[in-house]
Write a structure and sequence with these properties.
two-stranded antiparallel sheet, alpha/beta, Rossmann fold, 34% strand, 12 strands
């Protein structure tokens, strides 16, 4: 797997990530969602540099201009519900992409540390010979992305896969690296060192879904 760790280099991304993590600023859910969206835009821009481009001629009011435009069909798939703000940010820049949505949640039997990732709702176009962009804001254990990818296989074989996350754990990044094709790209804003026994990233930022949309039962 090819890992693109964006926060290794200083940029405006630092400010958006800081506000996401700060427990005081997190209290403003609208700002939290907007920062997720802005990070999605940065991830989309960086990813766009790896796409295939073809030259075209366009006509301006005063003449013609040769331009290079991305040519591969994209399918953007996000994990509900936490992935929605990130999805919007990615779609702001990759606005010609088809869209797919899938729900996945952790099930802790007997309230133990062990858990399964349950996939429920799933809606997607054909993935055959397209570029799959699989977005999940928090790459904790990596099991969610693994299970979602397994569910997506029924919709065809993509020509390439890109994973997009805001924060991941070192363990989670290692896990998906072993379970996705070798030429898969991971675009991630930052990687944290610790994953707890219950699968939470430390220092992380908390529950992205709850911070975006309110606590669930």
């Amino acid at each position: 797997m090819i890992v693109h760790h964006l926060n290794k280099n200083n940029s405006l991304l630092n400010r958006f990530m800081t506000e996401l993590r700060d427990q005081e600023i997190q209290k403003d859910s609208m700002r939290f969602r907007r920062n997720m969206e802005r990070i999605g835009e940065i991830l989309a821009y960086e990813l766009s540099k790896s796409l295939v481009y073809q030259e075209r001629i366009i006509t301006t009011p005063f003449g013609e201009k040769k331009v290079s435009l991305d040519s591969d069909p994209l399918v953007l798939c996000s994990v509900l519900r936490a992935g929605l703000p990130l999805h919007y940010g990615l779609l702001n820049f990759l606005d010609k992409a088809e869209n797919a949505f899938i729900s996945a949640y952790r099930h802790h039997p007997d309230d133990s540390d062990d858990f399964d990732v349950i996939v429920k709702y799933f809606a997607a176009p054909s993935l055959q010979d397209k570029i799959l962009l699989l977005a999940d804001p928090m790459l904790a254990t990596g099991k969610t992305l693994e299970n979602v990818y397994s569910a997506l296989k029924s919709h065809g074989q993509p020509k390439q896969i890109h994973l997009l996350s805001v924060i991941g754990s070192e363990k989670g990044v290692s896990y998906v690296s072993q379970r996705f094709p070798e030429d898969t790209h991971l675009w991630i804003a930052d990687i944290d060192p610790v994953l707890t026994s219950k699968g939470y990233i430390v220092p992380g930022l908390g529950d992205a879904g709850d911070l975006s949309y309110g606590e669930k039962l």
